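[#protein-structures] MJ: dropping Cytochrome C here for a structure pass
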Amino acid sequence: MMKKSSLSLFIAALILVASTAFAGKMATVDIPEKPEMYATAPAALTPQQCAQCHTGAFNGLKNAGGKHRFDCQGCHTVIHAYNPKKANYDEVMPKCASCHTDIHGPTAKDCASCHSNPHTPRKVAMTPRLAGACATCHAAEKAELVKFPSKHTNVSCDRCHTSHGYKPSCFMCHRPHYKDQPVEACAKCHSVHKPKMVTYQGTDWNQTCASCHGKIAEKLRKTASRHNKVACASCHKSKHGYIPQCTECHKAPHPKTILDRFPNCLGCHLDVHDLPSMK
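AK: finished. structure tokens for Cytochrome C:
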């Protein structure tokens, strides 16, 4: 009995020594404690620091972030808290409604259907959802298309505007009036939402006019009249098809006795584009 008791005491002593030794060595390496490193709260991460991992989001904001180009924490108040087991993605991600009201009306609350990436809010794809709601914001353009019917009236907005804010070249559908015509010239005569209401900005459009009115342009080129040096828009003013009165430029060019007998200038001057011609 004594031998058994002594053996039990010996084993208990060994276990106590081993457990004490294990408790004193809980790590495989020795790292000195530095509590001073945790004495102050850390500063918030800067966008540049976030970008070290989230380069795609950073570049999106840089190139097409619009008004979203501010500190990441402005939206992401909870960072790196996503847990796959909890499936808490919706919980930790910011909500559009936290900052934005119903700016597109009460029926357009599905922001992500157009603004698919909050880091590139200015890149808006022209989805069927958006194409059917253009007039909600662009009422004036829609009104012009209805009031001034043209082939553009019957074309869906997304036929030309393939993404929100995209302004296409007229030459995607239309041929230029003359070779090497600059596309910038189109909008100086044609308002895109009422293209048949042709107006002129400036007076230097003779080459454009000649593309349709070739015979008249050739007459003006050959005539000895001073009219061959006058821009078409100087007489035809600011609206296509406008026919001016001679008296808008010429104030009583003949004595009163002649004007009384011939009040209509074109009674003698038969062709305003070739005045010397007296047929």
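MJ: nice. The mean pLDDT is 84.
AK: one more thing. DSSP finds twelve helices and no strands in the chain.
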